[in-house]
Structures are given as structure tokens and as C-alpha cells.
Amino acid sequence: MKVLVTGAAGFIGMHVAQRLLARGDEVVGLDNLNDYYDVSLKESRLERLQRQPGFRFVRLDVADREGIASLFAEQGFDGVVHLAAQAGVRYSLRNPHAYVDSNLVGFVNMLEGCRHHKVGHLVYASSSSVYGGNTKMPFAEADAVDHPVSLYAATKKANELMAHTYSHLYGLPTTGLRFFTVYGPWGRPDMALFLFTKAILEQRPIEVYNFGHMQRDFTYVDDVADGVVRVLDRPGSPDAAFDAARPNPATSHAPYRVFNIGNRNPVPLLDFIGCIERALGKTAEKRLLPLQDGDVLATYADVQALGEWVGAVPATPLEQGIASFVAWYRSYYRV
Ligand SMILES: NC(=O)c1ccc[n+]([C@@H]2O[C@H](COP(=O)([O-])OP(=O)(O)OC[C@H]3O[C@@H](n4cnc5c(N)ncnc54)[C@H](O)[C@@H]3O)[C@@H](O)[C@H]2O)c1
Question: What is the CA radius of gyration of the chain?
């Protein structure tokens, strides 16, 4: 297969591209290498990919309409894994336009490329944040997701709606994956695991929001990359069981699917910190702070539908995943 992976210099993108290359696929990795976080980390991820045969890098912005149209016309992709996006909940309160450009304009450009060049399957990153203020646990794909609490979440929900229209109008198979707090080696410097590890090693206090009363379903990046590739291999088809009189949001009369991909195990923030402390052999100094705007209190994935669809669900225990992250962090930053 020839696959376009957008956001290939990003955390999840690198792991997905590696997995596709390892099984012999040809991968075109696209990224604009923006400076939302340390660009040298993105460059190091790319260097790893460039050492593998079958990889080609294209530096391009997904919001560049002509650039994306030419890329699709030149390349003829069998599949697209669209992960490039402006990520981060909190930053969306400060810089909303970055989310409109990358996540909405960029997404239409992907859809148009797939539509005009008969791509076999578009798999794209949605997010657990679409569940917004919902408190029904675990979060299931059949739940209503009409109450986002950040613009980031709204753009991800919008992606699902936009994908549905293209699946309906043009028969384009699309699958959205709602990622639940992904962590692991090569992780993002703006996320809790990275921030906490760095601060603890530098003997600085860590900032613990909502006074520690939060829960997250932490999902190991290898499990996520495995899920993305399995899903890519299984495009949806129109669901014969879909009943428009009682429409199930998870499926459709069109070749459209959306799945949670999470660890089925919500972990209290203080337990998560305890795990990091054990892996580092150091104790954190905690600054307890109120809830941040845009944050949700808890996430917890129902992954039954994913398991039935691809035969595997994330299962890496948190202790193990954190130990792998800490080992990577210490060797990469030589600390
Ligand atoms: N990591 C998580 O816990 C998590 C959770 C839910 C959803 N997601 C989604 O998964 C995807 C990947 O996330 P990640 O954690 O790897 O983030 P990341 O920021 O490490 O990766 C995204 C990559 O996309 C690139 N990019 C951003 N805007 C671009 C643009 N306009 N044009 C081209 N490239 C652009 C960035 O340079 C970056 O390398 C994103 O869509 C994100 O919203 C991630």
C-alpha cells in the first residue's frame, strides 16, 4: 500500500508511520514542522523515519489548498492516515484560529484530495474530548456528543460530521478514531507525562489541576499505532443494520465509522503521578491548582466496538508504559 501519513513528525504520526514501514508499506509523511512545541523533537522523529526504506517526507501545510491538491494528484495514495492537527485543549482558548486553519480548512483539503483521487480509505484522528461534559461512563460511540467544552473538541466533532458527508456523497470510506490521552516514548512536551517527568527531574514543582481530582484513560502509543493500522486495513461499508428512524451515531448508511481507542481504565491523576514517581525513583512536589477552562473531569473509553471491528484493543498496563516513557526520556535527554 502507498499511504499518506499527515503529522508524521508528530508523536502518534511517527509511531504509525514506523509500523506501516515495518510491514513494507510505502509511506509519504507530511508535516509543516510548526513550532507549537520543540521543533528539534519533531526533526529527531523524522530522522528516525528517514532511516527506514520506503519513507519520503513532504513539508507542507494541510491548510495549503493548492499544495495538498497537487500532492494527491501526483502521488495516487491507496490510503490516508490524517493525524496532522493543532492539538491541545488549553491552547485552543488562546489561539483559536490555529485550530480553524489546521483542523477545519486542513480537513476539507484532505477530504477533497481523497474524493478526487479515489483514495480507498481515510482514517483520521478524532478525540475523547468530543464527549465534552458527558458524565455517563464509559464513553460509548452511540452516546450523543453535542456538548463540547473547548474549540479543539468542536473541531474534532466537526471533522466527524464533515467525514460523514463525504462518505455519504462520494462513497468515500472514512473512519474516525477518538484517541484517549495517548502517552509513550517520543511523547508530546505539552502533555502531563512529559511535563511532570521533566519537572520532577529538574526538582521543580508540578502543577496538578482540579486539586488532583481528575481521571484519564491513558492509552499507550504502541496500542494506538496498532489500532490505527488495523483500522486502516478495514474500511467501513454501508451498515445494513443502520436504522435512520433511530440513528446510531457510531455508524451509518454510508461507509462511515467512528471508534473509541482507549485503555478502558480511568486512572486518578494522583495515582498517575505516583506511577511516574516510582519509575523515576523521586518524589514530586505538587502545586494543587483549580480546574483549567476547557478541561474535562474524567475520560473512560468503551472499546467494545473497536474490539469487534479489528480484533484487538489497547491493553498495555500504565506502569509498563510509563517505565518505557521514562527510559526513553532519560536516554534521549541524557538525564
Ligand atoms: N496525543 C493525544 O493524547 C491525542 C488525543 C486525542 C487526539 N489526538 C489527535 O491525534 C493527532 C496526533 O496527535 P499527536 O499527539 O501526535 O500531536 P503532535 O502535535 O505531536 O502531532 C501533530 C503533527 O501535525 C503537525 N501539524 C500540525 N498542524 C499542521 C498543519 N497545518 N499542516 C501540516 N502539519 C501540521 C505538527 O507539526 C505535528 O508534528 C492530532 O490530530 C491530535 O489532535 C491526540
Answer: 19
> Residue 325 corresponds to which cell in the numbers above?
516513557
Task: Give residue 217 CA to ligand 1 midpoint distance, Å.
Answer: 19
Q: Whose CA is nearest to atom 35 of ligand 1?
A: 84
- CB count within 10 Å of CB 264 equals 18
Whether the Cβ atoms of residue 258 and residue 178 lie closer than 8 Å to each other:
yes
- CA–CA distance, 303 with 309 (Å, rounded to integer): 10
Three state DSSP letters for 194-228: HHHHHHHHCCCCEEEHHHHCCEECCEEHHHHHHHH
> How buried is residue 216: exposed, middle or buried, by Cβ count under 10 Å (0-12/13-18/19+)?
buried
Query: For residue 63, which atom of ligand 1 is closest to its CA?
Result: 31
**Residue 5 backbone zone (phi > 0: left; psi -120 to 50: alpha; other: beta):** beta
Judge whether 99 counts as a catalytic residue: no
Tens of pLDDT along the chain (335 residues) come to 999 999 999 999 999 999 999 999 999 999 999 999 999 999 999 999 999 999 999 999 999 999 999 999 999 999 999 999 999 998 999 999 999 999 999 999 999 999 999 999 999 999 999 999 999 999 999 999 999 999 999 999 999 999 999 999 999 999 999 999 999 999 999 999 999 999 999 999 999 999 999 999 999 999 999 999 999 999 999 999 999 999 999 999 999 999 999 999 999 999 999 999 999 999 999 999 999 998 999 999 999 999 999 999 999 999 999 999 999 999 999 99
* Integer Cα distance of 270 and 2 in angstroms: 43
Relative to the CA of 129, which ligand 1 atom is closest?
6
Q: 164: helix, coil or strand?
A: helix
- List, as one string, the DSSP characters of 283-329: PPPEEE-PPPTT--SB--B--HHHHHHHS------HHHHHHHHHHHH
